Amino acid sequence: MAQKVDLTKELKKYFGFDTFKGNQEAVIRNVIEGRDTFVLMPTGGGKSLCYQLPSLLMEGTAIVISPLIALMKNQVDAMRHFSEEDGIAHFLNSSLNRAAIEQVKADILSGKTKLLYVAPESLTKQENIDFLKKIKISFYAVDEAHCISEWGHDFRPEYRRIRPIINEIGQAPLIALTATATPKVQHDIQKNIMMMNAAVYKSSFNRPNLYYEVRPKMNDVDKEIIKFIKANEGKSGIIYCLSRKKVEELAAVLQVNNIKAIAYHAGIDSQTRSLNQDAFLMEEIDVIVATIAFGMGIDKPDVRFVIHYDIPKSLEGYYQETGRAGRDGGEGICLTFYSNKDLQKLEKFMQGKPIAEQEIGKQLLAETAAYAESSVCRRKMLLHYFGEEYTEDNCSNCDNCLNPKVQVEAKELLITVLETVIALKEKFKQDYVIDILLGRENSEILSYNHEDLEVYGCGQDEDEKTWNAVIQQALIGGYLDKDIENYGLLKLTAEGKKFLKEPKSFKISGDHDFEEEEEDTPIKGGAACAVDPALYSMLKDLRKKIAKNLDLPPYVIFQDPSLEAMATTYPTSVEELQNIPGVGSGKAKRYGKEFAALIKKHVVENEIERPDDLRVRSVANKSKMKVSIIQGIDRKIALDDLAFSKGLEFGELLDEIEAIVYSGTRINIDYFLHEVMDDDQILDVFQYFKESQTDDINVAIEELGNDYSEEEIRMVRIKFISEMAN
Q: Which of these, 180, 214, 353, 468, could form a disulfide with 357 (CB 3.0-4.6 Å)?
């Protein structure tokens, strides 16, 4: 696009937001200007918008390469919900039958599809390559780009083939996005996908609202978890377990204890998984117990806690999974249970894999263990892992900062470590350095004749945990560095060399011993909350009631931050509600009356003085196109004739009508429906939407088979939404 686009205006038009978050605007501008772009943005930072908005503004179809089918369905659904448009996004993967694939291709060729999600496996099929060569591609987006790197927590070999396939299909700008990437993984992605000259946009990985805690894994973990959930009754949470068996067992234990919980793992059939996921989104259940198969495509903003029953395999996995808590900026408690035995089990799982893969796996596990056992600020350690410096001494929102261990002077210990690393010519890893310090005799040390070194056994007065703490805190302090390219060899930094010449105070706190510690401190949360908790609770109840009546997930009505704002500024009319973040004119008109009435009643009964700085937004007029479509339907003009008169494809007209009904306006297209469908057919599809947990058109096509066309299903869905939700 040659002309300068008012991106804020376009953001408001398509997504209803007033402002961009973080780097979003700069990223989108870079994509629109046709340059390669690399985006590092934590979960909840708004990655999807970085390719969704440009796809709507640029000529052609954007190809989004995405690793999970569940994620694609969720993204397509979200795209339609946020933009109030349907049919502009499609996905192409193994879940589609031949008829559905042909329909997708027809929509793309007609030019109406702006966003196409493709699984990497589907991208490699020759028929798809040949098809994509025929169309105008605005840009390629590689989502979850860490899958390219074997150092990433979710390596997918097929991701390595993306660049050759793009070269075959045809050049277009490229945007790669990931929520978790260490400097090593970032370099690996850029190198493999041949975008070393891309503009890099890196957001802070700090999530201040998340509270991190690691607890020793004793025999009564189930009891601790039940106690915690009961103390957080009614809040949404995810519990991650490594094995399917544990998922099933724990879900059963929670259910017996009257906790609304459900299991989710790859061994459960896809229909049941989908139903379980929907039940969680709809708040019919509070807790989902899952393997890491769950969550990649979950966009639930009000998950209040994430519990790791087992320690994750990598800090990247841990960061991504905990990142599903508190995405709305509210409370997010991240509780992890840790035992050395779990690490040993995970190491055993690696046996039989190629040596290089085992080495990488062991390094990732070692980082996770260091994080769990350390008494340093959790936030500081996590951010250091992702190449970001956290300068605060105390984050006040993790167990280590709220219950700090006594610090001891360790200047001499650090000197000993640095001298040992130098004596080993900076060619060995942390565990080997500690073996030398402790004077251990093993075959590796003997093969190098390192038992003859002067430093051999010089650290026998301290135990292994102390030396681990010294090295870990020296890494965070910038005295040592790990050469990730060479399996984590320890090397001195310039700061480390300077320290040896001019030693200064260096204090450490001892690591936790997770084999001896007992249960102690209560869990603390990092909640953002409303000024009026009583009103907030009433608003949540009202939201749940409306959602249940409409069979919609509660957060589709209003998200938690919107309710918190309502319980702080007390808007008492539909007009004032439009001044609340996340409440557009359509939503205010559609759902606002009951909320405004409840707030007004509460204000009067409690003699509350409302803030006097409320600004009432002007309500944007509906576009002329929408008004004329409504008038045409009122005059009962056949929809195909109406589309022709507006210069629209039939599917584009349905897009417009869907936007109208989804924004809260009731319309009646029965006169046309009865011309093109039998009454029984209309009733059949209507009944499907009445009983279904989702209005996703692709799910509907799968369920209803080949009996109905996509247009027929969409028209009945318009009737359903208009009659049932408006």
A: 353
